[in-house]
Fold this sequence. Notes:
The complex is a heterodimer of chains A (645) and B (379). Chain A is α+β, with helices and mostly antiparallel strands and 645 residues long. Chain A has 18 helices and eight strands. In chain A, strand 7 and strand 8 form a beta hairpin. Chain A is elongated, with a radius of gyration of 42 Å. In chain B, 63% of the residues lie in helices and 7% in strands. Chain B contains 13 helices and five strands. Chain B has a five-stranded mixed sheet. Classes of the chains: A alpha+beta (645), B alpha+beta (379). At the A-B interface, helix 3 of A face helix 5, helix 6 and helix 7 of B.
Amino acid sequence: MTWLMRSLCVGALSLAASAPAFAAAGEHSLAALSMGALAETKARIETLAGNFAQAPGELRQLTEQTRKSMMSGTGVRGFTYLLILLLVGAAAEWLYWTYAYSPLRAIHATPVETPLQALRLGLRHLLLRVSGMLLFTFAAIGVSAAFSWPAGMHELVIALTLLLLSLRLSWVAVAIIVAPGRPQFKLVPVDPRRARWLAATVVVALSLLAFGQFVPAILERAAEARHAAGLLRFAAYAAATLILLVGAFTLFSRPSGPSGAAQMRLPIIPRSFLLALLVAAVFVAWVMSERVAAVTLIVAIVIALQLGLRDMVYFYWRGDGESGEAQGALPAIVLSLARFVVVLVGIGAAALALDTPLTALAESVSPWVRIGLRLLGVAVLALLAHGVWIAVRSVVDHRLAGIGPVDPHHTPDASSRLLTLLPLLRVTTAVVLMVMLVLSSLWALGIEITPLLAGAGVLGIALGFGAQALVRDVIAGIFFLAEDAFRVGEYVESGTNTKGTVERITLRSVALRHHNGPLHFVPYGSLGTVRNQSRDWVIDKFNLPLPIEVDSETIRKMIKKIGEDMKNDPELGGLLLEPLKGKLYRVDPSVKIFRCKFRSPPGKQFDLRASALKRIEAALKKLGLGFADGRQTVLMHPPAATPPA
Amino acid sequence: MQAATVVRNARLISGLVLMAFVTGHLANLSIGIHSLEAMEAWRAQLMDPWRSGVGQPLLLAAVCIHVAFGLYAISARRSMTLSRADVVQLVLGLLTPPLLLNHVVVTYMADQVTPDFDSAYGMLLAIYWKFSPGYAFQQLFVVVIVWIHAALGLYSWLVLKPVWRRVGGFVLPALFAVPILALIGFAEAGKEVLAKLASDPAWQAHITDNITSIVKVTSKMDALQAQILLTYGALLLLAAGVFAARMLRDRLTPVRIVYDGGACAQGRRGLSVLELSILNDVPHAHVCSGRGRCGTCRVQVDAGAQALSPANDIEQATLARVSEGKPVAAGVRLACQARVLGAGVEVTRLLPAYADASAARLPQDWLADDAAPARDPAP
């Protein structure tokens, strides 16, 4: 079941990932599509080459132009205003930090024991930092509206402020997540020795990417230096790619473990190689086409996250280093949810990046787009079903594992109800989920399921008559289980004279093991009155026939004494809920019948009775008595004595 | 008074004198928001005292003392454990002399070299906004740099004083209002000068004459500037060299200290306890970043007191201040002043690591009673 769910999920995921590609493909055939892509790539590469040729001249011109415009009253004015903006922003942030610095220091000074605690502190830290930055940005941008800027300068300044914000944001985010220098604060499992380098690599690469995103755009808009902008963008992205490649190979390679460790592991494709592959793929895609690059970037990030998500999630429950299956259901659920969220966010981002709102896509007539969207729907459904299944299964498994192995012929205890119900719940959930998933997937794929259901309805009536008994059994079973009539391991008698220990419970029937061996399969419908012999307590009564001559008071005391002895016996004492008592019950000709009784837990009465009889016999023997022997003494009266004549 | 106190007070007082001068100058600039004439008119009140027989030597002495003791402080450092604000202040302070020199030489020396030189605001603004805008960028930079350097210094000194609670509300906004207003004044006056240059040919001719007269002496002034810069560079190199030599020498003998809670730190011999804490990421309060002013870094020395350097007078004064009349408890030291010279030092941090400036202003609020347990470190 798990395997099925997982493969369904993976399949749906890969389909979902390809959905935007389908959507992008539009109405074209595959061959035309690849030709188009090739042509676009060729054009892009020619443009890039052209940039190399023309950019130097353009840059020279640009520098000259900038110098000329800056070395004038206008330039001085713009620069003055820029400094004022920075001062205003800094003032706002400084004011903020006079209050916020102590909480920040308190966060740093808090001793951290668990990763969850680190996560809480990290979020607070992030909030404090980001508030300061936002204050700076809002103050600076707000004040910038008050000045009469030289032409084109205002946009430039706002773009620069945003660039500054994004650089600081990425810096702070990386510093909080990786926590170089404070290993106990880290939010992801990284080797503390590599944390500094990892943080540096990511920050530099992100800065280069942000630079490539903002600065060439400014050049294009303000100075119309298209080639120089293109070259700058290429250089920034290439440098970022290079740094990430080097980082992937050096920082994600496996640390050399103890000798012989390599033998213990099965060889897999190293993570560093996969990451490098992703980075390279994104860059190649960017060289081919910007639209493709955006989608590839998102897909790459999604894949990279999926690769590391397991470690990241389990890090919060078992810390660093330890391996093996983690405890409890929560990590599995969180992992499943996290995978789901990552994919959904990725799909949303891809739709945004392609600039095609999903609603517009839905109205598109292209069959590819429709299929893509429907596959997307199926993927979402499969992921949801997978999440629910994981949640139910891991909760059930966890509880079952806590109870321990099942032995139906052992005394049932409080956990037997769970043992009865949990496996049933698991199977039922699986069946319901599968049916719902199949039906709703068919619906999502656009296959009309109403006639299907209607047909099933007609068939259902026919079947229903035939399967009346089946339905009765299932419904009756639900009530038996809900009312807790019996559990696995209990000895029950049904109204139909079948009796035995409950061994197995299914949807339709219960299996009873008779004490002589045969296994009865009783459908719930014909179970009738259930007489549960294993609940709470039983009272056992037995008769004791003794000779008529015995003194009943002596015997009563003797039995009471035996009852007390049994109560004090270390083995039997705990089993006696009420001690053995006996009293004269009936007097038959030549026999006094004493009736004894005691109360014990279910199933223990037979042993107890045997033990009691044994002791009674011994005690009687000591008194010189025996059980009534049943022999009748016939007294022959001699004829009346006649005097001898 | 020991040398440490003399150096610290001399730097502080000379810095305050310089800041007073800069504040007056910037205030004068901000009058440019109103008009160029008002700027010129207020110059007599705001700037001229510094050209008087008392003001001029005072200013010159303050410059020399501040630069010299600043360089001395670099050479006396034992490590580069600086807070971010300290790094900013240090770098900006080092940048100031080379950037500012040109302005000082032009305004101060020019009318001595060329007696009929007109160093009025109108003249200089005309140079900045019209004839050589390159200088304007330099000046704008210097305004921001000098002011941030000064503001950081003033703030970190004043925020520890009890008086901050009364004046802080005015001083903090003023620290930002002054340069912002000055820059706005500079921009407004610049616009006015450009308009005047375009509309008033006579004034334009006067300015052009002035500039030609100053261009003649440029070589002289350049030589002077080069000389001063060379001296400054040499002194700076010397200070850096002394610092590097000390670092290299101390590197050979590592020491190790143990804190309350089992944390430990190690580093070069001769570092202060606080520097060891910072280098090893051990949380340790230090509001004044090791200047011995705030007393938040103070520790109880549990073992190895003889392996620490003896308390200097800065430390004694601060400890006496924070104990507020009561005798200083035995074994209490300032972690920023107590340097570790040997092995076996164990200390207990007396204040939580998140202590802020209020711990320096109102020490009794942050003092745990002897009987009561120390404050819970978790917030």
